[in-house]
Amino acid sequence: MRTLTLVSAVLAGLIAQVSAQTGRPRVTPVDATGPADPVTDVERALLHVLPAWYVLGALERALDAAMNRNRTQAAERAVFQKTLSFFRTELTEHLAREERALLPALEARVGRFGTLVNVIAYDHDEIRRGIDKFSEALAALRAKASAPHAPELRELNRHGIFLVQYVGLHMAKEDSSLAEMARRELGEEGIREVARRLRETA
Ligand SMILES: [Fe+2]
Question: What is the per-residue pLDDT for 17?
């Protein structure tokens, strides 16, 4: 199921709409014993997209709490470390799978430069750079965890809030504009082909 995370991100407009209406994500239970079907697989894969929203929310809350007292506590540093682990694994894999299985199919249809394909690829590079900066800032903060570390916290906050906002906007962009482009340019057969490639690149 994890292999379909990216296709799900592209087609997850329904979840984005529900989230916008209710203020929080809502997952529809899926019958895992049902027949193999790309659309059903996409719905299942949504279960693996939603954690990103929770991780970003937890990161923002931990940063706010620490910034309010100008110092981190152990629980907040644990949130930062778990967030970095999520960025380094699930999120980074998400970007790579999308670049292998989805973007080439769209590029073949609409080209790259001056199109949404280039925008999405640029976003991915910015997210990777942001993760590296967040990682460096967290290492610096952890090295001074037992001493006053307001400057290190401010630096971590700067990169953390950037990722919260940038990754959030990127996912919203994929849920709306990229999903629309994929439906229009690839059609049902094209989407099935992307789903097949995602399985192969797991
Ligand atoms: Fe993406």
Answer: 36
Give the domain range for residue 78. 2-200
CATH number at residue 113: 1.20.120.520
pLDDT greater at residue 48 or residue 152: 152
Q: What is the pLDDT of residue 40?
A: 44
Q: How far is the CA of 135 from the centre of ligand 1 (A)?
A: 20
Counted domains in the chain: 1
Q: How far does the centroid of ligand 1 lie from the alpha carbon of residue 71, in Å?
A: 33
Could you give the 3-state DSSP secondary structure of residue 25? coil
Summarised one tens digit per residue, pLDDT across range 70-102 is 999 999 999 999 999 999 998 998 899 889 989
Q: Which residues surround ligand 1, an ion (CB under 5 A)?
A: 98
How many whole angstroms from 96 Cα to the centroid of ligand 1? 9
C-alpha to C-alpha distance for 38 and 55, rounded to whole angstroms: 27
The answer, yes or no, to whether residue 170 has pLDDT greater than 80, is yes
Nearest to 160 by CA among 49, 64, 72, 93: 64
Cα–Cα nearest to 191, from 14, 40, 28, 35: 40
Distance 118 CA to ligand 1 centre (A): 11
64 C-alpha to ligand 1 centroid (Å): 26
Task: Evaluate whether 59 touches 81 at the Cβ level (below 8 Å).
Answer: no
* Structure tokens given for 144: 């001074």
Q: How far is the CA of 92 from the centre of ligand 1 (A)?
A: 10
